[in-house]
Backbone:
């Protein structure tokens, strides 16, 4: 038998190879791949919003047609579960009249806001098939889905108190659809999913992943949602003012909304909405602009 020149002593002098070292390197490569993909997704899907002039994230594969289809499906499901008042009902007719006045001002307000940012007016809203229903419920709420499908819950009526305040709320909801906030949220969620997959690929345990996602929520997702609310407040206020409603009613409205919540709202950093105090301050700062819109477009 052949003798090894250095025998076993030579082998003992070699550094032992660690198990899992190759796997760890592979995980870092996978993590890097996800991070590069996330970065490419973010930078390749940014676009400038004509209503605000801000750069926003909208997945290029989510077109207005797809948004409208999803909005219609959601609308039909909601109405099947929460049957609305008849269109002939007096309350339904009053709400429909407010909605129509706001809708009639969409072309002018859209063009004016886009011009303020040196951009061409967007056209996606021209394909909206507007519809509004009133749903009997204690909820003080309203919504407008992509494609122009709207609903007002009867619980909002005693809080709004006036047609002007109701127009402010409905203008806010219409603004969400005009601003394509639904597509922005879907794009944002996709980016968050990429981050979650990156965390899993890096070998983080579930608790670590949860901590990272919580940090992402407080640092990115929730502020993003609050920005949407602030944007909708501004565009909605301009719509209401242009439609000859009194924008000053927005202040009392949000004071009453705050009272209706019983002070149970979470702190702003943990909420998708600005707190009422912040919201009222923002609306007050927008009042000169809203009054100028009323002067220019109310006729």
Residues:
């Amino acid at each position: 038998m052949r003798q090894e020149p250095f025998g076993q002593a030579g082998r003992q002098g070699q550094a032992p190879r660690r198990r899992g070292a190759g796997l760890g390197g592979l995980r870092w490569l996978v993590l890097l791949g996800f991070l590069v993909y996330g970065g490419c997704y973010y930078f390749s899907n940014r676009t400038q919003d004509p209503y605000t002039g801000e750069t926003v994230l909208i997945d290029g594969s989510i077109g207005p047609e797809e948004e409208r289809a999803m909005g219609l499906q959601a609308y039909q499901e909601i109405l099947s579960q929460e049957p609305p008042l008849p269109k002939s009902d007096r309350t339904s007719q009053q709400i429909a009249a407010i909605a129509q006045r706001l809708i009639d001002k969409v072309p002018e307000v859209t063009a004016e806001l886009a011009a303020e940012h040196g951009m061409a007016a967007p056209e996606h809203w021209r394909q909206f098939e507007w519809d509004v229903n009133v749903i009997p419920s204690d909820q003080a709420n309203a919504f407008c889905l992509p494609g122009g499908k709207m609903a007002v819950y009867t619980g909002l009526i005693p809080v709004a108190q006036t047609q002007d305040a109701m127009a402010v709320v409905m203008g806010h909801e219409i603004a969400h659809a005009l601003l394509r906030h639904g597509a922005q949220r879907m794009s944002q969620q996709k980016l968050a999913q990429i981050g979650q997959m990156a965390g899993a690929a890096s070998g983080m345990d579930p608790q670590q992943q949860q901590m990272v996602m919580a940090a992402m929520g407080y640092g990115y997702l929730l502020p993003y949602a609050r920005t949407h609310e602030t944007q909708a407040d501004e565009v909605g206020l301009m719509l209401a003012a242009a439609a000859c409603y009194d924008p000053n009613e927005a202040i009392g409205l949000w004071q009453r909304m705050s009272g209706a919540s019983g002070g149970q709202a979470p702190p702003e950093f943990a909420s998708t909405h600005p707190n009422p105090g912040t919201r009222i301050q923002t609306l007050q700062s927008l009042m000169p602009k809203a009054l100028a819109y009323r002067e220019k477009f109310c006729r």
